[in-house]
Amino acid sequence: MPESLDSPASSRPGVASLATAAAFKPVGSTSIIKSPSWQRPNQAVPSTGRISNSATSSEAVAPANSALGQSQPSDQDTLVQRAEHIPAGKRTPMCAHCNQVIRGPFLVALGKSWHPEEFNCAHCKNTMAYIGFVEEKGALYCELCYEKFFAPECGRCQRKILGEVINALKQTWHVSCFVCVACGNPIRNNVFHLEDGEPYCETDYYALFGTICHGCEFPIEAGDMFLEALGYTWHDTCFVCSVCCESLEGQTFFSKKDKPLCKKHAHSVNF
Fold it and tell me: What is the dihedral of CA 93, 94, 100, 106, to 10 degrees?
């Protein structure tokens, strides 16, 4: 006599219908870019001379209004540069601005040499000998002018971004501002998910909101084909007979102790 199944209800055959995991929130992705036209200059080290940051090593004088604005969130790869001060020596390089020989102290920036009095911001004309500068579309700007006219604004802190830029959710962000709501780690260029408008890293999203396949115990991700049977959710490829592994998707099936069985093995196995 064939073995009975767990309950009279379970002895009735069922048919699992296939669906697509459209109920999940859309998967998002970010892109990390450098602020447009920012470049990391090749800072040439002179063959002779001593590198010094003291004011006495240069003829240029820092302007009174060269103080920076509010401090920025910590960017891991800021590209704001500072010129190197080289004292007078045997070397007489050519100035990148006037194309004349430099006889005396000079600056090194972007792999070129400059008269200290000619290394100026393209907009405000103030010297950049003692402050940060950025190259934008072939021109050099002091950090303040770049921040005012070119730098994108962060969608979280509303401050200007002077380093790596995260593009996500149609906004720009500091790397340190676009983070997973659950763990607080920067998402950077990894996949993320939205829940109630807040970003979650993939690990935390599935731990908090995801549906786990009863067959393989891995998450059912957005776009996956799945079905519901025996009170559980399954990947379409995971809903198979527990004995012969034949796919039961769209087929008549039976169950014993929550294990799906094909018609052939429904009464011939004992778990």
Answer: -60
**Residue spans of beta strands (DSSP E) within 110-153:** 112-114, 133-136, 139-142
pLDDT in tens, 122-133: 999 999 999 999
Give the other-Cβ count within 10 Å of 95's Cβ. Answer: 19
Range of the domain at 117: 78-151
* Last residue of one domain, picked from the residues 160, 185, 208: 208
Within a domain: 37: no
Give residue-wise pLDDT tens across range 41-58.
223 322 222 222 222 222
Q: Collapsing DSSP states into helix, strand and coil, what is residue 227?
A: strand
What is the domain count for the chain?
Answer: 3
Whether 126 and 165 map to the same domain: the answer is no
What is the distance between the alpha carbons of residues 149 and 162, in angstroms, rounded to a whole number? 12
**pLDDT computed for residue 44 by the predictor:** 30
pLDDT tens per residue across span 201-260: 988 988 898 888 999 988 888 788 999 999 899 999 999 999 999 999 888 899 888 899
> pTM here?
0.53
How many Cβ atoms sit within 10 Å of the Cβ of residue 3? 11
Closest CA to 255 of 230, 226, 227, 235: 230
Given a contact cutoff of 8 angstroms between Cβ atoms, the answer to whether 82 and 72 are in contact is no
Same domain (yes/no): 85, 131 = yes
Residue at a domain's end among 129, 151, 173 = 151
In a domain? residue 178:
yes
CB neighbours of residue 94 within 10 Å = 14
Who's near 127: CB < 8 A, 6+ residues apart? 60, 61, 62, 63, 66, 116, 117, 119, 120, 121
